[in-house]
Amino acid sequence: MWAASQERLAFPDHTAGVASILEPRRNRPDKESCANVSDGRTILASLADAFPGALYSVISAESGEFTFSFLSKGIKALYGFSADEVSEDPMLLNRCMHEVDIPGYKQASDFASENMSVLDHEYRITSRSGELRWIGVRAVPQSMVDGSTSWSGVMVDITDRKQAEDAQAATQTLFRTLFGVLPQGIILRDHLGTVVDANPAAAHILQTSLTELLNTPAMHPLVDAIWPDGSPVPNDELPSLVALRTGEPTESKIIGSARGRGGKNHIWMRVNAVPILRNKEIYRVIVTLEDLTDGVKLTRKLQEEAETDFLTQVSNRRSFMARLSAEVDRLQFDPERSSAVLAIDLDHFKAVNDTFGHACGDAVLVHVASMMAESIRPADVVARSGGEEFAVLLTDTTPNGAIALAERLRAAIEEHPTFHDGREIRATASIGLTLIANADITGVDVLARADQAMYDAKRAGRNAVKADWL
Q1: pLDDT at 249 (0 to 100)
Q2: How far is CA 45 from CA 21, 26, 48, 70, 80, in A?
Q3: Considering the domain boundaries, does residue 175 fall inside one?
Q4: What is the mean pLDDT of residues 280-294?
Q5: Is 172 within a domain?
Q6: Distances, alpha carbon 350 to alpha carbons 184, 340, 388, 468, in Å
Q7: What's the pLDDT tens digit per position in 102-139?
Q8: Checking DSSP bridges between strand 429-435 and strand 465-467, what pairing results, if any?
Q9: 169 part of a folded domain
Q10: What is the CATH number of the domain that holds 133?
Q11: Domain count of the chain?
């Protein structure tokens, strides 16, 4: 290798002419021819001295011995030895060669000799001053009539280029090492959007394999992506393809996917996509993926804990009021719909605690909350609003539908006792209902009306349902 980017120097094929000019000419016919040869030798010697390296011609006998018939002064800059010193001791240059490189050079030299092909090789030397250098050699063979071989060639110092190659190789090794061990996923897409590279972390985050990732075309999504609100992400809105289309970076997009992990639990990622330009055209898009799944799960768990009653695992009063306020706001803009709120209080609950203990009372609360949670629709909300008080939000329901549900809840509480520590504890409930009116401003007013209806049920004898519109 004679140049960076894995290209060889283009040595002229007429290097064999070194030997033809420098070799003694037989049967020279006249003085003019001799003069021409002399002039040629002088011109060649001048050119050789100006060459940034060393030109040489070597005669290799069939016995294996060799002699320099020509060696330019540039040999001293390479090895530190003059041309005269090398001519007196032809093995001097060989002894400078790094011992590790000797077998490779011998193999290349033998091959070139056997096949009468160009010798093209690189090796290290220790110069006269002790400096380590890289030498590149190229020599052209020519068979002589006496059976010997003339090698005409050049030697050049390629130390700078080899050091640059070594530095580049080290950089590439470092890059590949980092590429492989970074916890962030990295995906490279080409200008067409095809995945051309990816690291193990990307495959791990996406719960797939590198083999499956590589060569994935742009039109084939890597994941069934969703936005945080649960809506699907169209393929052309994926950050990598947006960056590819617009040429602008796309940063910190939160995307979820149910791919992998059995499709049961979403994985969540922070995605960045940065286009790389070459000659003002998009050459690559670098996509980074940061796995947020554990953080999102923790955040949601903390949010659920903040919104959930610790004992009964239904909503707490604060989250219920937030949901109720949102429903009040919604119905102000949609008067054709109606929703209802139920206020539920367990009758004589203090007697349960006093008679059987608070552990038994807690079991009753858990049992009642579970029955109510199983009786409502997914869009409805049941919450523990106080010690033995519960509230239910029924969205998009009719007055008759709300009363029917309240009666079912009252009957279920009465008919299904709680069993705790070998005891059967029966309970009843008083339930009050109100409808969310178009004129309502806050959820507090709505719940206050439901509470008042619940007190009316208690005054009516308990274990009853009262609606404030009847």
Answers
A1: 92
A2: 10, 21, 5, 9, 20
A3: no
A4: 88
A5: no
A6: 56, 28, 9, 26
A7: 999 999 999 999 999 999 999 999 999 999 999 999 99
A8: parallel
A9: no
A10: 3.30.450.20
A11: 3
- Asked if residue 292 and residue 312 are part of one domain, the reply reads no
Q: Strand ranges (DSSP E) for 127-266?
A: 132-143, 149-157, 185-190, 195-198, 225-226, 250-257
The verdict on 397 and 446 lying in the same domain is: yes
**Interstrand relation of 389-394 and 185-190 (parallel, antiparallel or unpaired):** unpaired
Least confident of 32-41, 261-270, 330-339, 436-445: 32-41
Residue 174 maps to a domain:
no
pLDDT at 8: 35
Say if residue 412 is in the same domain as residue 456.
Answer: yes
Tokens 């290798």 map to which residue? 1
Do 462 and 320 lie in a common domain? yes
Copy the structure tokens of residue 88: 């007196």
Model-wide pTM > 0.85: no
Q: In the numeric block, which tokens belong to residue 350? A: 């203090």
Rounded CA separation 367/351 (Å)? 17
Q: Residue 188 belongs to what domain range?
A: 182-296
Instruction: Say if residue 351's pLDDT is above 50.
Output: yes
**What mean pLDDT is predicted for residues 193-210?**
88
